[in-house]
Amino acid sequence: MPSLHSPINIKQFEIIECVKNKIDTVLGRKQEPINIVATSKGLNMNSDTSPMASNSSKNTVGDNIENISSALSKQSIKDDTILIRSPTRERTRSLNAPSPIQQFGPCGRIMKNSAMVMTIQDPASQRLTWYKPPLTVLVIKKVRDAMVIPPFIQLVKWFIHQKRMVVFVESAVMDDPVLTRNPEFGHIQDKLMTFSEQKDDLTDKIDFCVCLGGDGTLLYASSLFQQSVPPIMAFHLGSLGFLTPFKFEDFEAQVTHVLEGHAALTLRSRLRCILIKQEEEESSAKPSTNQLVLNEVVIDRGPSPYLSNIDLYLDGKLITSVQGDGLIVSTPTGSTAYAVAAGASMIHPSVPAVMVTPICPHSLSFRPIVVPAGVELKISVSPDSRNTAWVSFDGRKRQELCHGDSLRVTTSIYPIPSICAQDQITDWFDSLAECLHWNVRKKQRTLDELSDLSSDPYEETKNET
Question: 278, 394, 417: which is closest to 329 by C-alpha?
Fold first, then answer.
């Protein structure tokens, strides 16, 4: 065990925190025993309310501390997983959302809370902290929009010259004729790092991400990271801007504020969508389509004139068959996109849930439903359907869903850490008011503003005549 004065790396610090939490449990300072998994990616803690856990934790805490001490002394925690678990009976799978990872890219993570028992913190306490200074930044701009080019150049120059950061941009940016003809861009062009969406994997290469555009720009940024995502700061330079709370006019102060670790986060859950073709299932081959979506996955009838006939399973049980134009499976973030246009309710992005919304169902009683985020949805074309269906992921990678194919949808452990301009609640309701004009109505007049109802409104006219 390292001494109190010896340097401790971040992995050792996390293990020590595990021991402290375990001791607190035994001494009665925690109401529930916890199961802790310490990995090189961070901690994963789950509460266990089983009565067997409280009886057995006293007998195992000493052994657990000895195990951790041995692991620290051997420096064996770089790539291994150390499991500290009370000998409890196996529980059934929770209906709550899977615990998201606490680390976002190489540098960003959720600020640790010593009083935290569950992995999923109170949303109000989710704040960004950097355990080492961010060195790389990915800047994504809206395509085919000349109005975004001046802010893009200004931001990139500021990152390079003022913050001394390595700036990544898409390789397609270097081929933009409007941008390359700009003399200011020519001075920084050689200092930029480029990547290709189809070839390069950005996982663990980007510390921080900035989006310049609208909601579609943020959706594109989400598609670039199919695992851990760095913190994303989105500036409103597009059309709607529901997911982009920052104004560009004062970007220097706002970005500096975030880089100093002063920012609230909204963890926007994503859906893991795995499309299994019939031949892949029969041969036990790896599915060719494994996609994370931020808004929704849409299954529709495509060009066919017939109703789509789609079977919907929840945790292996057939729930219903959808007869209509299709089905939307969305995250809480996506509830204000296609789903709300199809008649669904709007859900705050911090709510762990999955929304299922029919598209023009041929039924008067088929209403949108909200299911727990921990369930698995399976969607397939009904055997007696007249036609196939088509599926798209956040509006992209559209492909056919044939008879015998199945689409499996679960909540991913890799959320989008979206940086708030103010806080989770204020940002969301501001977006509802400004972008969707939620509950806009002409104000009803007060009784004092009304005329005296006891008087005859025609009396003045009678006197004049």
Answer: 394
- The 10s digit of each residue's pLDDT in 237-254 is 988 899 999 999 999 999
3-class DSSP state of 4:
coil
Of the candidates 257, 261, 338, 254, the one whose C-alpha atom is nearest the C-alpha of residue 295 is: 338
273 SS3 class: strand
- Residue among 297, 217, 221, 230 at smallest CA distance from 258: 230
Neighbouring C-beta atoms of residue 443, cutoff 10 Å: 5
Per DSSP, 205 falls in state T
215 is catalytic: yes
With a CB cutoff of 8 Å and minimum separation 6, the contacts of 105 are 204, 206, 207, 208, 228, 229, 230, 231
Quick one: tokens of 145?
A: 């929009």
Residue with tokens 């960004």: 128
The CA dihedral of 341, 344, 346, 347, to the nearest 10 degrees, is -140
Q: What is the pLDDT of residues 58-105, one digit of tens each?
A: 444 444 444 544 444 444 333 333 333 334 444 445 555 677 788 888
Give dist(CA 369, CA 374) in Å, integer.
Answer: 15
| Amino acid letter, 20 | K
Q: Per DSSP, what are the bridge partners of residue 330?
A: 296, 355
Given a contact cutoff of 8 angstroms between Cβ atoms, the answer to whether 265 and 415 are in contact is no
Q: What is the pLDDT of residues 397-450, one digit of tens each?
A: 999 999 999 999 999 999 999 999 999 999 999 999 999 999 999 988 888 877
Single pTM value for the model: 0.73
CA distance 434 to 437: 6
pLDDT higher for 267 or 42? 267
DSSP state of 90: P
Q: Rounded distance, CA 143 to CA 126, Å? A: 32
If residue 103 lies in a helix (H) or strand (E), which one and from where to where? strand 103-104
- Widest CA span in the chain: 106
Among 48, 215, 394, 405, the one annotated catalytic: 215
Of 185, 177, 132, 130, the closest CA to residue 155 belongs to 185
Residue 190 has a CB neighbour count (10 Å cut-off) of 6
The sign of the torsion formed by the CA atoms of 287, 289, 295, 298 equals negative
Token pair listed for 295: 């808004």
pLDDT of 432: 95
